[in-house]
């Protein structure tokens, strides 16, 4: 089973070598790895060049982009540029972040999932981050059947069916909703512990804080589901302001009549799926 990797990298000199070394240590090797040097101003390109000399699986793409870091759009724009360099001769396509260390058997197990489950569309492991005591701890505040955007693996059929990745906040929720709409399943493997070298939770400006709510509008959640999901998020993050930021973002998107990420039919399916999940958790 052939799999290709696309790794967007923006100023990742502190972590990229560890990530690429963990790719080289995989028991099941990728056929191609495109590392997208996305407007880096540090030593990221020099690290990529080192690995180009180590293995023919690596390919480099230098690209320019805005220095502004906005969740979703920047990384997916870089991913799509890398994707454009690849041919269609793959079974599994992977978007991988440049600050991760994978266990050596990561893609061996991921390919087993796709081989063993013909209807598998998306698969992945779980992120671990160091706590205050320098111990690696699970960081997965969402449902266990969600694959983090840091290491999404797609079957080719599923990736084609969902129309690729949306360059917008919420892309790593939209893909899973559309996968289910197209009758593909999502699989996670709790034994696959991925070390995340740079903790999540970086502060964004006020505009970025509203993007989650805007994403919920664009996914056609509707007001009530958005309010419930936002309240749940605020409780998990112990940050009440997250609820109000989300609702403000949703209402602003509604007022501006921003474009949706999904069709009306897909939106109906998404709302039905969300309500069904909520009812199962309650009862």
TrEMBL record:
Keywords: Glycosyltransferase, Transferase. It comes from the Bacteria. GO terms for molecular function: glycosyltransferase activity. Pfam families: Glycos_transf_2 (PF00535). The keyword Zinc does not apply. Residues 5-146 form the Glycosyltransferase 2-like domain. The keyword Glycosyltransferase applies. PANTHER family: POLY-BETA-1,6-N-ACETYL-D-GLUCOSAMINE SYNTHASE. Belongs to the glycosyltransferase 2 family. This is Glycosyl transferase family 2.
């Amino acid at each position: 089973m052939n799999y290709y990797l696309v790794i967007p990298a923006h100023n990742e000199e502190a972590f990229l070598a560890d990530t690429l070394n963990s790719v080289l240590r995989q028991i099941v090797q990728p056929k191609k790895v495109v590392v997208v040097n996305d407007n880096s101003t540090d030593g990221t390109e020099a690290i990529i060049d080192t690995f180009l000399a180590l293995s023919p699986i690596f390919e480099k793409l230098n690209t320019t982009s805005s220095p502004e870091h906005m969740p979703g759009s920047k990384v997916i724009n870089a991913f799509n540029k890398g994707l454009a360099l690849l041919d269609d001769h793959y079974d599994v396509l992977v978007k991988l972040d440049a600050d991760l260390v994978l266990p050596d058997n990561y893609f061996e197990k991921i390919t087993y999932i796709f081989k063993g489950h013909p209807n598998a569309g998306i698969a992945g492991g779980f992120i671990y981050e160091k706590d205050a005591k320098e111990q690696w701890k699970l960081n997965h505040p969402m449902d266990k059947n969600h694959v983090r955007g840091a290491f999404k693996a797609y079957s080719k059929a599923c990736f084609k069916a969902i129309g690729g990745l949306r360059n917008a906040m919420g892309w790593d929720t939209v893909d899973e909703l559309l996968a289910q709409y197209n009758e593909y399943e999502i699989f996670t493997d709790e034994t696959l512990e991925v070390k995340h070298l740079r903790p999540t939770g970086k502060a964004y400006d006020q505009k970025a804080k509203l993007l989650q709510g805007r994403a919920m509008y664009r996914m056609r959640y509707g007001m009530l589901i958005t309010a419930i999901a936002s309240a749940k998020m605020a409780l998990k993050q112990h940050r009440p302001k997250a609820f109000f930021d989300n609702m403000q973002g949703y209402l602003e998107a509604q007022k501006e009549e921003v474009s949706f990420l999904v069709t009306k039919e897909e939106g109906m399916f998404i709302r039905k799926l969300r309500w069904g999940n909520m009812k199962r958790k309650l009862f």
